[in-house]
Amino acid sequence: MTNVVSPPIAVALRNVERRYGTVRALRGVSADIPTGVWLGVRGRSGSGKTTLLNCIGGIDAPTAGTITCLGEDVVGLREPARTRWRLARVGFVFQAFALLPTLSAFENVELPLRIAGHPDRRRRALACLDRVGLSKWVDHRPAEMSGGQQQRVAIARALANAPRLLLADEPTGELDTATSRDILTLLREVAHEPGVTLIMSSHDPLALSYCDQVVEMRDGQLVG
Ligand SMILES: Nc1ncnc2c1ncn2[C@@H]1O[C@H](COP(=O)(O)OP(=O)(O)OP(=O)(O)O)[C@@H](O)[C@H]1O
Ligand SMILES: [Mg+2]
Q1: Ligand 1, atom 18: nearest CA belongs to which residue?
Q2: What residue ranges of the chain have pLDDT lower than 50?
Q3: How many domains would you assign to the chain?
Q4: Is residue 224 part of a domain?
Q5: Which residues surround ligand 2, an ion (CB under 5 A)?
Q6: How much is the pTM?
Q7: What is the per-residue pLDDT for 116?
Q8: What is the pLDDT of residue 224?
Q9: Which atom, in ligand 1's list, is nearest to the CA of 60?
Q10: Does residue 152 line the site of ligand 1, with CB under 6 A?
């Protein structure tokens, strides 16, 4: 047993704003997201869900406010430190899978470990693919796989660095209902590991039904 003590708050947002020119995608978001929850973020198209996840995970940067994520001041990190932090600590899953088409499943999962200079990346990537049930598909390219299988590869990639924070942006948005259930069951297994926090945006009532808590984004603000 490892004896890692997780902070009680995984993500603290304070007055987070994100403007793109005149568009105010986030308009003062404040929240404390406890460690260990599966939080759903629902809201209409354009309400700011993707922007929020990208700011939490350091893909994007707020134009005002602070974000403390797994004890790190994400907004204060400059590149390339922010990318390094993200590769080491966070896992991202996207609606459209975002796999590299010319790489095999194995290579897609191994790539972030390679970039991060992970010493044991081959074993780790294979273990993650095994975990998502794709041991027999390691040499296949994304185009040779179903949407559900591609999302499994993407989840394996997100798990490769053993993150304590997973960010999933409409992970079932491109999947049929049966496949969505498979992916949500897999995410539930991951989310139930001690100390793992999962923040998932979705429009999908089925996906949101798996969450411990659901909040709503409305015009760049959190309600409820
Ligand atoms: N890179 C960008 N440049 C300019 N505007 C942007 C950019 N990214 C997002 N926006 C704008 O910010 C607002 C919030 O967009 P965001 O993608 O976060 O919404 P969303 O809730 O994820 O929507 P959807 O459900 O369609 O994915 C929208 O008005 C959008 O047009
Ligand atoms: Mg979005």
Answers
A1: 48
A2: 1-2
A3: 1
A4: no
A5: 49-50
A6: 0.94
A7: 86
A8: 73
A9: 1
A10: no
